[in-house]
Design brief:
- The complex is a heterodimer of chains A (246) and B (341).
- Chain A has a domain of 121 residues: Rossmann fold (3-Layer(aba) Sandwich).
- Chain A has 246 residues and is an alpha/beta fold.
- The mean pLDDT of chain A is 81.
- Chain A contains 8 helices and 9 strands.
- In chain A, helix 5 packs parallel to helix 6.
- Chain B is mostly helical and 341 residues long.
- Chain B has 2 domains: 83 residues, no CATH class; 238 residues, no CATH class.
- Helices cover 77% and strands 0% of the residues of chain B.
- The longest helix of chain B is centred in the middle third of the chain and has 32 residues.
- The model of chain B has no long low-confidence stretch (mean pLDDT 87).
- The chains are: A alpha/beta (246), B mainly alpha (341).
- Chains A and B meet through helix 1 and helix 3 of A and helix 5, helix 9 and helix 17 of B.
Chain lengths: 246, 341
């Protein structure tokens, strides 16, 4: 790798994604068989992304903006490896941690304590690391003794606090945030916002999708603007945001 | 935070040592069967030594390739396990904890369940409807072996079938090798199979005191029988869970199929019953994997000796075959899961 590329932690290289949509989603063998027999399985092709390329340097906070359906979420999914791009490739230089939609990795019969380890394991953290960070997570979530009861008894605010604490107290190398979470009461919201800012300024590489241009202006170093499934503009925050607004 | 890795040299040493110990135990227990097999004992031992040497060579190749930074199939598999070891441990323990979380007797059900099932079926099939046919000796134990093995297998399949669609919320958000989900489901279900060996042995022991059935050194082969069954279940689980993503019909189809499979396997009846009446069924039975696993277990426990050498080969063939089929289908379809769940 050349010298200029040394700091690149994430490289999206000419990625295109094609979805094939059957007329209806076929979920039964009978349907599939009748459709096949009548030769009616038609696929509509749909390019969700076309030739998207950009790279992210270590420690950068990159915002992704664009209108609904421009391909923001698909881009994030390809970057985190959930979707395989039809063409093109993604280079990842570190562990990618998505900020999970609240509680999607939780099991409601387990206690908060057990869920911290389960969720941490899903996000790819080793055991020793989670053990070391456990007290910090607990303190941040302000759950106290409730940590030892099954989370099905939690209020929604408690669940969100737990989820947010797990996602951010541990230090991910690349954090993917799909819309910033505003969770809990006012006090916790302030705390979580401060934590996000701390993460973003503290060397973590962040990919950040938002519709809130003020947040983007406040937090990001660079912005990628997606429109019509392809990159319309990449560059300085002010420049791109101003152009986007018009 | 580095990605966790195992030292391949150490793993290989353990692997080779483990295979060696197992090989020696099997050879000691199954010596009469080895002598009785078609190719003769000398040829058999030579064959074993060749296979063992092949394993050693492969391990050496794996280590040397690893040093050069190249991967091998087994090496990559080992490193994947190392990397996701903690996740696997968490998922298995979650499934196991949740299973009995809200019950009073908890894990005790793993012991109690097969016992109760056996009692019911014993009463029904030995007193009400006598289907024993060929007058199976030690029918209670015969029945219990069959129930434990078959219920264990269907339990694994039922658990793993929903592994992918049940974890949809995770699969669409975090990248984890998807194979981990069905495999951990099978592993957590197979803890139950292992636990249910305890009542099986206990009942056999107590029953044996009164009926002259004594446990023998052959019970050392039980782990082997379980490993073979679990391998088969993993293959089946991979196949079912991937099909399930595309066709939800699989769930209902499997419900019927597993019941049919249970009756197609001599669990409550014996193969003797079919002989003379339906000989084609007896021939067909050779292609029923579950028949072989169940018989394997019964030979170990009731006959107190090792199964014939050909049985080892057949069981291994079914296990590896199913694992390959399941793994292949899963691998071919896993990239499309996200689009369908």
């Amino acid at each position: 790798m050349s010298d200029a590329n040394k700091n690149v932690i994430l490289k999206v290289d000419d990625v295109s994604m094609r979805f094939r949509m059957a007329n209806d989603r076929v979920t039964s063998i009978k349907e599939m068989a009748t459709l096949l027999l009548r030769n009616k399985v038609e696929f509509k092709e749909f390019w969700a992304l076309k030739n998207v390329s950009f790279d992210v340097k270590k420690g950068e906070v990159v915002g992704i903006i664009g209108r609904n359906g421009a391909g923001k979420s698909t881009t994030l999914k390809i970057i985190s490896g959930i979707l395989k791009p039809t063409t093109g490739s993604v280079y990842r230089g570190g562990r990618i941690v998505p900020m999970l939609e609240l509680g999607s990795g939780f099991d409601h019969d387990l206690t908060g304590h057990e869920n911290i380890f389960l969720n941490g394991a899903v996000l790819g953290y080793p055991k020793e690391y989670l053990k070391a960070k456990y007290d910090e997570i607990l303190a941040f979530s302000e759950l106290g003794d409730f940590i030892n009861i099954p989370i099905r008894n939690y209020s929604s605010g408690m669940l969100m606090r737990l989820a947010f604490s797990i996602a951010t107290v541990v230090n991910p190398e690349i954090l993917i945030v799909d819309e910033i979470l505003s969770v809990g009461d006012e006090n916790f919201q302030r705390k979580s916002y401060a934590r996000m800012m701390e993460l973003m300024h503290g060397g973590t590489t962040v990919l950040f999708v938002s519709h809130d241009l003020n947040q983007i202006r406040n937090m990001c170093n660079r912005v990628v603007w997606l429109e019509d499934h392809t990159v319309k503009m990449i560059g300085d925050v002010k420049e791109v945001c101003d152009a986007y607004k018009l | 935070m580095d990605v966790k890795k195992y030292n391949l040299k150490k793993v290989s040493t353990y692997l080779i040592a483990g295979v060696l110990v197992c090989g020696v135990i099997i050879n000691l227990i199954a010596w009469p069967q080895i002598c009785a097999c078609q190719i003769g004992s000398t040829a058999f031992v030579i064959l074993e030594l060749i296979l063992f040497a092949a394993l050693c060579v492969y391990c050496m190749r794996m280590i040397s390739r690893d040093r050069r930074g190249e991967g091998t199939l087994l090496g990559n598999a080992i490193q994947t396990i190392a990397r996701y070891e903690f996740l696997i441990e968490q998922l298995v323990s979650r499934d196991f904890k949740i299973k009995y979380k809200r019950s009073v007797l908890g894990v005790f059900w793993s012991f109690l369940n097969p016992l109760l099932m056996m009692s019911i079926q014993y009463v029904v099939f030995s007193n009400l409807l006598d289907v024993r046919g060929g007058n199976v000796p030690h029918y209670a134990i015969y029945l219990l072996c069959g129930i434990v093995m078959f219920n264990g297998f269907t339990d694994c399949c039922n658990q793993s079938m929903r592994a992918i669609i049940g974890n949809a919320s995770l699969i669409t958000k975090v990248y984890v090798p998807k194979m981990i989900y069905p495999v951990t489901k099978v592993l957590s279900a197979s803890i139950n199979i292992v636990l249910s060996m305890l009542p099986l042995l206990l009942v056999t022991f107590i029953y044996g005191l009164f009926n002259g059935l004594y446990l023998n050194w052959s019970i050392l082969l039980i782990p082997l029988a379980l490993v073979l069954l679990i391998m088969f279940a993993v293959g089946m689980g991979l196949l079912l869970s991937s099909l399930m993503v595309f066709f939800h019909d699989v769930e209902f189809l499997w419900g019927v199929l597993s019941t049919a499979w249970m009756y197609a396997t001599p669990i409550i009846y014996s193969l003797e019953l079919l002989k003379g009446k339906a000989d084609w069924l007896v021939t067909l039975m050779q292609f029923n994997p579950m028949y072989h696993y169940v018989t394997f277990m019964r030979t170990i426990i009731i006959n107190g000796c090792s199964p014939a050498i050909s049985e080892y080969a057949i069981c291994l063939l079914f296990s590896v075959g199913m694992l390959l089929i399941g793994g292949y289908v899963f691998h071919k379809t896993e990239d499309k899961f996200v689009l369908y769940i």
